[in-house]
């Protein structure tokens, strides 16, 4: 008899974005003349850059000719792209081997799938508030029991609060896998070398593995902040890094990412190279490679011309972030993040809870954001605004907040 994976039933209803959509629809139906500006969703809006488009066109043309057509490639990614990613890390003085780089179709699937190479009984620690994928994939993998008071039993939550500037202390108990996201979605906080070193030391002392999501690394402009966990001494023995072209080059719909599993990474019962080869085995068994058209576009995005174009896009989004931050601060709303990350984490004014503020911002200013409570218990009382968007819309939203929001 076929039975479903009962763990799926433990998932909390995918509540956040459907609920935002429901409230937005209801508002639009009642206020057909109001133009809503959406600053809620973490999706890029600028078109692909010139180098990327040129590469895509060229590869598509090759696919149209039997002499240059290519089918399946290596599951781990094309040599050229793996080498380009290795070269990219050299900028941060991080030395990798091409076979430590696993190309994928994105950071979201990798951040969930990586759990499958570890024991199903692994104890997982996550930040609160958190990017929901890490939590939900742990739930599906059977690592949790009940859900009480906004948290899953079986997971270890690392509090991210105003007091610790939204970067957590190391867990006060032994855990096996630690997810860290820096620059952080949703809080926009960026970990320092010192903060990351504490986690690497924790992983060393507890034989834990850090799964580091660096999807927003390219948004760091402060040269003193680490863009890769591998900038931290000893990290290669304890860390896996996941990254993506999604926010770096606007590939959210194109799909391309990568995961670094160093040869030096060891966990209990393994020798150096064994974890790397496990992920290799996982990928060659259950993944058939990212699109060969897209992989060359990734090489183009990492070329020096491509990087200049990426930087221009990032600068555009970060100017949006500045406009949003200043606008909110001008009306007395306290904000965090938005300086080395494209998210502004705003404290809801007047003690409103995050859904109350969602409604207020929509009703009064016609701006849609994301309630912090959707990212975890400690997101309550906060609100996320995204800097991805058209400049004119961002300006319109800020002007409307200044004019119409009653606080
Ligand atoms: C957007 C985002 C990603 C990127 O996921 P892709 O699957 O590569 O598009 C990864 N992690 C976080 C925290 C993100 O916000």
Describe the protein's architecture and organization.
The protein is an alpha/beta fold. The chain folds into 2 domains: 10-47 and 306-404, Alpha-Beta Complex (Aspartate Aminotransferase, domain 1); 52-302, Type I PLP-dependent aspartate aminotransferase-like (Major domain) (Aspartate Aminotransferase, domain 2, 3-Layer(aba) Sandwich), CATH 3.40.640.10. It has 12 helices and 15 strands. It has helices spanning 16-30, 50-63, 79-90, 107-113, 132-140, 193-206, 245-249, 274-286, 292-302, 304-330, 354-365, 391-404; strands at residues 37-38, 101-104, 124-128, 147-148, 151-152, 156-159, 177-181, 209-213, 239-244, 257-260, 335-337, 343-347, 367-368, 370-371, 382-386. It has a 7-stranded mixed β-sheet with strand order 2-10-9-8-7-3-6, sandwiched between helices. Strand 4 and strand 5 (151-152) form a beta hairpin. Helix 10 (304-330) runs parallel beside helix 12 (391-404). The structure holds pyridoxal-5'-phosphate. Pyridoxal-5'-phosphate binds next to helix 4 and helix 7.
């Amino acid at each position: 008899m076929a039975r479903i994976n009962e763990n799926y039933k433990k998932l909390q209803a995918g509540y956040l974005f459907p609920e935002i959509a429901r409230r937005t629809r209801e508002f639009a139906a009642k206020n057909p003349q109001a133009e809503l500006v959406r600053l809620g969703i973490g999706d890029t809006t600028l078109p692909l850059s010139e180098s990327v488009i040129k590469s895509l066109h060229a590869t598509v043309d090759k696919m149209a000719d039997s002499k240059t057509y290519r089918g399946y490639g290596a599951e781990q990614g094309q040599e050229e792209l793996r080498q380009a990613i290795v070269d990219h890390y050299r900028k941060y003085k991080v030395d990798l081997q091409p076979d430590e780089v696993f190309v994928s179709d994105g950071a979201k699937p990798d951040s969930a799938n990586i759990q499958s190479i570890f024991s199903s009984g692994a104890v997982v620690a996550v930040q609160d508030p958190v990017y929901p994928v890490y939590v939900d994939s742990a739930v599906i993998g059977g690592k949790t029991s009940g859900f009480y008071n906004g948290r899953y039993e079986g997971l270890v939550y690392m509090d991210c609060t105003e007091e610790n500037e939204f970067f957590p202390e190391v867990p006060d108990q032994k855990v096996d896998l630690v997810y860290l996201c820096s620059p952080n979605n949703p809080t926009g906080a960026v970990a320092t070398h010192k903060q990351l070193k504490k986690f690497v030391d924790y992983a060393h002392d507890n034989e834990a593995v850090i799964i580091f999501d660096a999807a927003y690394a390219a948004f760091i402009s402060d040269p003193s902040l680490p863009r890769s966990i591998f900038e931290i001494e000893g990290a290669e023995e304890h860390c896996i890094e996941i990254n993506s072209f999604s926010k770096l080059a606007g590939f959210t719909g194109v799909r391309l990412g990568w995961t670094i599993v160093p040869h030096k990474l060891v966990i209990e019962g393994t020798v150096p190279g064994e974890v790397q080869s496990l992920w290799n085995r996982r990928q060659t068994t259950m993944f058939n490679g990212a699109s060969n058209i897209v992989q060359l576009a990734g090489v183009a995005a990492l070329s020096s011309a491509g990087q200049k174009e990426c930087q221009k896009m990032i600068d555009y989004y970060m100017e949006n972030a500045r406009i949003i931050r200043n606008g909110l601060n001008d009306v007395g709303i306290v904000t965090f993040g938005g300086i080395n990350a494209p998210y502004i984490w705003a404290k809801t004014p007047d003690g409103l809870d995050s859904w109350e503020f969602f409604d207020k911002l929509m009703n009064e200013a016609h701006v849609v954001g994301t309630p912090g409570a959707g990212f975890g218990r400690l997101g309550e009382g906060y609100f996320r605004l995204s800097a991805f968007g058209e400049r004119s819309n961002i300006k319109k939203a800020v002007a409307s907040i200044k004019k119409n929001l009653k606080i």
